[in-house]
Design goal:
It is a single chain. The protein is of the alpha/beta class. The protein contains eleven helices and twelve strands. It has helices at 3-14, 19-25, 30-44, 61-88, 101-118, 131-139, 186-189, 204-213, 227-235, 282-291, 297-304, and strands at residues 49-52, 55-59, 93-99, 122-128, 145-148, 158-166, 168-172, 193-197, 219-224, 240-244, 257-258, 268-275. The strands form three sheets. It has a five-stranded mixed sheet with strand order 4-3-5-12-6, sandwiched between helices. A five-stranded mixed sheet has the order 9-8-10-7-11, covered by helices on one side. Helix 1 (3-14) packs across helix 3 (30-44), helix 2 packs across helix 3 and helix 5 packs across helix 10. The longest helix has 28 residues, at 61-88.
Length: 308
């Protein structure tokens, strides 16, 4: 058994059992991939994959249990490498942040700027993805830190820390009838077509729950992944926009009006997440502390590495 065989097992699942793609991902041939799988199965004495002829269709029960161990072994192997790098080059390396578009566009720029001033030699990779994808990136080691409002707290394998709280805001074109009201209610905006986030993004669940609790049926005519798209179509007069409050900038969004209203939806909390057991470099803890200054490295380390 060797690490290449373990990598092939993991990559085969990631590539949905397409051995040609596995070979491309690991810079080897399809025949080489097949041989490594057969050698490992022969050594273990059990079949790891469900087959139909030469095609792989999925994992057998032993294969499913092995995959859990493989993921852990490869993650720990990467931790060993990261540990060595921490002591040989403390201010150099790479940090991968996976965040939603809203966080990347409206919240992280000052954090990233401050981080780069502290660690100019650290290569910072900022990946934009949906919350579920961010969780997957953390779990399989593609990202060091995840930032999102949804999904992250649903995984027991992830350690989460509070980042900040926020509410949804309502935006309309400057001449919209709702701008004439002193105080706008949910019932008021339910009379108009609405543009907001797709399900599972940027607190959309809170929006749906508020309307349901008020026994209102909103006319959601369009949904989008990010705030910029929503604002663009609101400017065209296609509907009322429900966006994250931090996505509205009065100096830039001059073609929109922010409605005067009490928070109509429940408070949202954006989270910082790290896979439990992940060895985070010192500059990774610094990044988290820049996001939330109340966090100390000792507190974060004890949560992420509870057994150490």
């Amino acid at each position: 058994m060797n690490f290449q065989q373990l990598r092939i097992i993991r990559e085969t699942v990631r590539c949905e059992y397409n051995l040609t793609e596995v070979g491309n991902a690991l810079f080897t041939s399809q025949s080489g991939v097949s041989k490594h799988i057969k050698d490992l199965e022969d050594e273990l004495g059990v079949g790891l994959f469900v087959r139909k002829g030469k095609r792989l269709l999925g994992l057998t029960e032993p294969g499913k249990e092995l995959l859990v161990i493989v993921e852990r072994m490869l993650h720990d192997a990467n931790n060993i490498k990261t540990l060595a790098e921490q002591y040989t080059s403390q201010d150099k390396g790479e940090l991968t942040i996976a965040a939603t578009h809203t966080q990347s566009r409206y919240i992280l720029p000052p954090v990233v700027q401050a981080f780069k001033q502290l660690f100019p030699k650290v290569h910072l990779r900022l990946l934009q993805a949906a919350p579920q994808e961010i969780a997957a990136m953390l779990l399989d080691g593609r990202a060091d830190i995840g930032i999102a409002t949804e999904a992250l707290s649903s995984y027991s394998e992830l350690v989460t820390f509070s980042y900040y709280h926020w509410y949804h805001a309502i935006v309309v074109p400057p001449n919209h009838p709702l701008t004439q009201l002193e105080q706008v209610t949910l019932a008021d905006i339910a009379h108009y077509p609405i543009i907001t986030y797709i399900n599972g993004h940027t607190g959309r669940t809170m929006v749906d729950e508020a309307f349901a609790k008020a026994e209102l049926q909103p006319d959601i005519v369009m949904t989008a992944l990010d705030s910029d798209v929503i604002k663009t179509y609101v400017e065209f007069g296609m509907g009322i926009g429900i966006i994250a409050d931090m996505a509205f900038n009065p100096n830039k969004d001059t073609q929109l009006t922010l409605l005067n209203c009490e928070p109509l939806f429940h408070q949202n909390t954006t989270l910082l997440a790290v896979r439990q057991g992940h060895f985070l470099r010192g500059f990774g803890y610094q990044f988290l502390a820049l996001c939330n200054p109340t966090l100390t490295q000792a507190t974060m380390h004890d949560a992420i590495q509870p057994s150490s």
